[in-house]
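Side project, low priority. Logging it here so it doesn't get lost.
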Amino acid sequence: MKRSYLTAIAVTLLIAGWMLLGQFNDKASDKAESTAADVSTSAKPMLVAVLPHQAQTITLYTIAQGHTEPNRAVTVRAETKGRISEVVAIEGEAITTSSVLLRLEMGDRQARLKKTQALLQERKRGYARAMQLDTQGFQSQRLTDEQLSALEAVRAELAEIEIEIAHTQIRAPFNGILEHRHVDLGDYVAINTEIATLVDNHPLVVSVQIPQQQIDNITLASTAEVAFATGQTRTGKVRYIAPRAESATRTFRVEIEMSNPDGEIRSGISAETRLPTGQALAHFISPALLSLNSAGLIGVKTVTGANTVEFHTVRILRAEADGVWVSGLPELSRIITVGQGFVREGDTVQVALQPTVSAAHISPQTLNLSHAPSRSKPVPAT
């Protein structure tokens, strides 16, 4: 009797404990649900600044280093022998076509000229007599032909002497600058002796080497921008593209020609060229708007029509002093200009449009971005 009584009391206590535990759990569950509801109610979408942005068509360039070269440069050589009697041209001086650089002594050339001229007159008279006798039938055709041959030989000799005398005055073959004179007054020169080097810097040529991966994008007559090491800038036209790559570098020689009438830009100066390689649609943005996603890809965050954050991987096409041109964004994009570091792809956000105000003038405090949810960590900008 006593034992069954104790058993009944134990069962009653167990039932009471189970009921009390259920009530406690229900209260805890209600409290958790209430807390979650409060958190859900207080976690409003992030407010970000968005700038509508339209893509533009831009010209793409390849940048190549090179140097200036003269349009032509020749070494003038002596075409007859003799001693230099007069130096006319000065090194560094502008020279015009056919102007005299220096003169050689005449030597016996003038005497030979007079002798040959006299002989020519004699041969002319001899040929005239032979023709007259041949017409009258007093001389054979063979003798007349011999007189003609003698006349022509003297004429040829006279022409040679006149050419030799003309070559005693060594002249410039084209307009240019006398870069260097290899001989001086009193020097004796033989045929083919180097006399002077003449350089023509108008037009001026810029020579660059283009990699084989980009050579197909370069076209003849396209306009190139050139910046010289001296600080000067010019534009020119592509006049030559090598048909074969250099075996050592696998690059192609490209020549850009530009006007240089006053010779202001000299040969041998280093130059940086921008050669057009095509066109593309791109957005011009501040580098501060670039960020990295979880995969380490560089991109830009935008907002959809449903106010959802999207991440677009972009490629930098061209860099300038105040921004970069990128591709990979939709042609018309709503780019997040402020707050992109506090939101992630897929988040729903509140949008504050900034159609005319630069992002540089929008502060996080203005948009209450200082209260960003702790679960969204900023993505480092690049």
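Brief comment: The CA atoms of residues 77 and 194 lie 4 Å apart.
Revisit when time allows.
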